[in-house]
Amino acid sequence: MAAGPNLLGPIRLWPTLSTFSPARQPGTALLPISHRRGPFLLLHTPTPFPPMKEDAMTADPIHMLKAAIPTLLTISKTAEHLQVSTKTVRRWIDSGDLVAHRIGRQLRISEPDLQAFIRVRRDA
């Protein structure tokens, strides 16, 4: 029968075997396939995947996208962080001192904008 390496590991074609056949070894999978000359079973011995490198996970576009999106704070969280009332935060937003982003009907303050606001206020 045909034998050869594959991306998934060694693969061999066997004539149809019972699941309890002595030819089947533990740790192998029997996968039915059709063939022109009759039904065959694909005997597959799984090989373990090599461990992923940490570099590969950090280079993943989804992880990079999540890292690029700044954390957005609500008005109440911003007020809590600055130890002022929500009314004061809204006043700063209305005057243009604090940059806020409208998402739907909600206002959010990004962390970089909040840090810039704090720097300007500290230097003034």
Comma- or semicolon-separated keywords:
124 residues; alpha+beta; Multidrug-efflux Transporter Regulator, Chain: A, Domain 2; 2 domains; four-stranded antiparallel β-sheet; 5 helices; elongated
Write the layout of secondary structure elements.
Layout: E1 3-4, E2 11-15, E3 29-33, E4 40-44, H1 54-58, H2 61-68, E5 72-73, H3 75-82, H4 86-95, E6 101-103, E7 106-110, H5 111-123
Helix pairs in contact: 3-4
Written overview of the protein:
The protein is built from five helices and seven strands. β6 (101-103) and β7 (106-110) form a beta hairpin. The strands form two sheets. A four-stranded antiparallel β-sheet has the order 1-2-4-3, with no helix packed on it. Strands 5-7-6 form a three-stranded antiparallel β-sheet. The chain has 124 residues and is of the alpha+beta class. α3 (75-82) packs across α4. It has two domains: 3-44, no CATH class; 72-123, Multidrug-efflux Transporter Regulator, Chain: A, Domain 2, CATH 1.10.1660.10. It starts with a strand and ends with a helix. The model is unreliable at 16-20 (pLDDT under 50). It has helices at 54-58, 61-68, 75-82, 86-95, 111-123, and strands at 3-4, 11-15, 29-33, 40-44, 72-73, 101-103, 106-110.
